[in-house]
Design a protein that fits this description.
By secondary structure, this protein is an alpha+beta fold. The protein contains 11 helices and 13 strands. A 7-stranded mixed beta sheet has the order 8-10-7-11-9-12-13. A 4-stranded mixed beta sheet has the order 1-6-4-5. A two-stranded antiparallel ribbon has the order 2-3.
């Protein structure tokens, strides 16, 4: 600090940085989870270095969060956790680290919360390349910084070869819901419309193509993105009754869950569902439906029909909502049942998947 003596806390942090350990091995070994110097080196060189923020550098066994700061942002805490087990670990548009950060942020955001803090738990298979782990942790750090959240605590475990699929990631998130805002799955009313913020199926298609098992030349990027900025713009402008991020199970699963929770009927407009041409072609080849594929940057929002145009304007003004569309309308009956307008004067049941026809993709 020019002209001033450095604060003792920051001096200790700088001293710790100077003596931080370095990983010398090319792959993860059992010693990296054993609690000794190898584990200390792994935490210093990869975790703390790549996720760098003041909370981690203090080096405690827990994060210490300011109650005053949380209370100043709202009157309720939102708390969520999720685990990520994707193959391959890196794929067009994202990787398991970015996926974990943005996925947990989105789980908080669709409840109306402002995401603030994340934890990161790693289960690492012996033999994972250190360079791969470093890239994934760096990606996590970059995603957290871009979203304005901090990864403040975590845990690392190393398991024997064959006991895991290279790397599993768990992230837990804390956010704060502003006073007076209630977004809940049971608030949907019979005259609401359902809006999606963009094209569907990109993430599921990206993972399946990236595995190289289908011999397809097309490269479809994942839609992995943090949605809290988009959500904030929407909830501060429109009376949003309910929101969900459209992940595993796709649009079909989410709409069925919401219809059951609010005991309303829904009719989906098949022609209005936005799908990228490459994804539509991919699905046609494999006999899949885009409405069943996973997404990692899409949400649905239920808003009053009278505010639908305003909601679309807000979404389309944001980079993550430029292709927003109304995909369904609610009605009183039959309660809890979702149908789809086929475009030929009839409707059929719009059901969620039964079983698991696709490999795990998140």
């Amino acid at each position: 600090m020019s002209g001033q003596e450095q604060h003792p806390l920051f001096r200790r942090i700088e001293e710790r940085r100077r003596r931080a350990g370095r990983v010398r091995e090319d792959v993860i070994v059992q010693a990296h989870g054993g609690g000794g110097k190898a584990m200390r080196d792994l935490i210093d060189d990869l975790v703390v270095r790549e996720l760098s923020n003041p909370g981690l550098e203090v080096d405690e066994d827990q994060a210490r969060l300011s109650l005053a700061e949380l209370a100043a942002r709202g009157d309720r805490i939102a708390f969520t956790t999720d685990s990520y087990v994707v193959t391959p670990l890196e794929f067009p548009g994202a990787d398991i680290g970015k996926l974990a950060v943005n996925g947990t942020i989105n789980d908080l955001a669709v409840g109306g919360a402002t995401p603030l803090y994340l934890s990161c738990g790693l289960v690492i298979e012996e033999g994972l390349e250190v360079d791969v782990l470093r890239r994934i942790l760096r990606s996590m750090g970059d995603a957290a910084k871009a979203a304005g959240v901090q990864i403040v605590t975590g845990d690392t475990k190393v398991v024997p070869k064959g006991a895991a699929d290279r790397l599993f990631v768990n992230t837990t998130g804390i956010g704060v819901i502003p006073e007076g805002l209630t977004v809940a799955s049971n608030r949907i009313e019979s005259d609401d419309v359902i809006i999606v913020n963009g094209v569907l199926g990109d993430h599921g298609a990206a993972i399946l193509v990236a595995r190289g098992e289908l011999n397809l030349d097309t490269e479809i990027p994942s839609d992995c993105a943090a949605l809290h900025g988009l959500v904030n713009a929407l909830t501060t402008t429109v009376d949003v009754h309910a929101m969900r991020d459209v992940t595993r199970g796709g649009l079909a699963a989410v709409l069925n869950e919401l219809a059951l929770a609010s005991e309303v009927g829904m009719v989906v407009d098949a022609a209005a569902i936005p799908v990228r041409p490459e994804v539509a072609g991919f699905c046609e080849i494999l006999g899949l439906e885009p409405v069943h594929l996973a997404n990692e940057g899409k949400l649905v929002a239920a808003v009053p029909a009278a505010q639908a145009d305003r909601a679309l304007d807000v979404l389309r003004a944001h980079p993550l909502g430029s292709e927003a569309a109304i995909v369904a309308r609610c009605r009183p009956a039959p309660p809890g049942v979702v149908t789809i307008d086929t475009g030929f004067g009839g409707e059929r049941i719009f059901d969620m998947l039964v079983g698991e026809p696709l490999p795990r993709i998140c």
